[in-house]
Amino acid sequence: MKQQTLILIKPDGLVKSLTGNILTRLSETKLEIAAAKMVRVTPELAREHYKHLQDKPFFNELIEYLQGKLHSRRKVLAMVYWGENAIQKVRELAGATNPEEAEPTSIRGAYGRITSKGVYENVIHASSNESEAEREIKLWFEPDEIILDAYPVKTITIEKLSKKVWS
Ligand code: DAT
Ligand code: MG
Prior knowledge:
Blueprint lengths: L1 E8 L1 H5 L3 H9 L4 E8 L3 H7 L9 H9 L8 E9 L1 H9 L12 H5 L1 E2 L5 E2 L2 E3 L3 H11 L27
Antiparallel strand pairs: 1-3, 1-6, 2-3, 4-5
The structure holds 2'-deoxyadenosine-5'-diphosphate (DAT) and magnesium ion (MG).
């Protein structure tokens, strides 16, 4: 079954210069890159992304981590990968949530760590099921930023829209 999945290279992955390495690992899956961009993560975006964890004791640290406040890298690389069984393939490569429990050869097992404050710095995010993938892809990307018809769209007309263009 063809699927799409959201992947984030989190601020620790960027600060450790792991982007090329992670993309190489992801290319083993033979999935296609359908979208990619650098994103400056607002508190609102971070909270919405992790809203299923808002009652957890580590929620505030997690939100600061995703914003890059722990790594002086205020950005993440957001991507959509597409292809056969994409969600499970990427989750397997990513490894378990807790980097100490992740397979040593998985991305999180190889590069993740638990900080002394108990934050799991696990280098990448990967959607864990189809409904989560849909929610997350729609949260991080606009339809025009994805090189496939990810989900149904509608066209709206916005009047008096102002936006930046090249001067
Ligand atoms: P995953 O990222 O594997 O989908 P999740 O959705 O349960 O895991 O949690 C999202 C992130 O929250 C995870 O990548 C790291 C952090 N996290 C989860 N459980 C944690 C815990 N017990 N202690 C510290 N951080 C945790
Ligand atoms: Mg998750």
